[in-house]
Amino acid sequence: MTATLAPFHLAFPVDDLAAARRFYGELLGCREGRSSAEWVDFDFHGHQIVAHLAPDAGDRASNPVDGHEVPVPHFGLLLPVAQWQALADCLEAAGTDFVIAPHVRFEGKAGEQHVMFLRDPAGNALEFKAFADPRQIFARD
Predict the structure, then answer these.
(1) 76 & 108 share domain
(2) Do 93 and 54 touch, CB atoms closer than 8 A?
(3) Going by DSSP bridges, is the β-strand pair 61-65/68-72 parallel, antiparallel, or unpaired?
(4) Could you tell me the pTM of the whole model?
(5) Helical residues (DSSP H) of the chain, grouped into ranges
(6) Are β-strands 47-53 and 9-14 bridged in parallel, bridged antiparallel, or unpaired?
(7) Which segments constitute the VOC domain (predicted)?
(8) What is the mean pLDDT of the chain?
(9) Across 91-114, average pLDDT
(10) Cys-Cys with 33: which of 37, 41, 109, 128 at CB 3.0–4.6 Å?
(11) β-pair partners for 53
(12) Are residues 111 and 73 in the same domain?
């Protein structure tokens, strides 16, 4: 079955809209859309994400995956390997404090992927990953 991918929409809490604008707009290069004093829309590679001012969003949890504690909840993108590497290089050059540093997960197994996790200034977790073989995105052992 072949599916057509549609843009997703995600609203998430932040405690500082100016910091969100710097992180998503300047560091990640997301074009800003509509905004108000309480929220900002960003074009996240064709997807609509909305940073909502919510300073009391609470703590985050994690789950173990391939030897790392993966933050939950999180969101992110699947990128081509070259674009993923360019982003990893940019984030490393900017001194990003990674939750999980750029590396290859499930190496030599079904679903092998390049992956990295970081947090935005409000503590929201983002995952960026890439598959050398996109047919492996939903691969099972």
Answers:
(1) yes
(2) no
(3) antiparallel
(4) 0.84
(5) 17-20, 81-93
(6) parallel
(7) 6-131
(8) 90
(9) 95
(10) 41
(11) 14
(12) yes
